[in-house]
Write a structure and sequence with these properties.
Strand content: under 5%
Distance between the termini: 29 Å
Number of strands: 0
Shape: elongated
Structural class: mainly alpha
Radius of gyration: 17 Å
Largest sheet: none
Length: 64
């Protein structure tokens, strides 16, 4: 159910936002067919290798 501005007041509880295992970088790389002109944008195994080499490029959830 969408929440409209006039239906919300200060102090209302906000619902939890659940996201999946696919990140924005994965989606961009998918749309660009994996041949993006920016070298930092790649998907899956290549991205994981780069993220392990440069840990501050992305957040990796230790649980998943």
């Amino acid at each position: 159910m969408p929440r409209y501005w006039e239906d919300v007041s200060v102090g209302d509880e906000i619902d939890t936002l659940t996201t999946g295992p696919i990140g924005l970088t994965d989606e961009i790389a998918f749309v660009a067919s994996g041949a993006a002109p920016i070298p930092c944008i790649c998907a899956h195994q290549v991205a994981l290798k780069r993220y392990r080499k440069h840990l501050k490029w992305a957040f990796c959830d230790p649980v998943t």
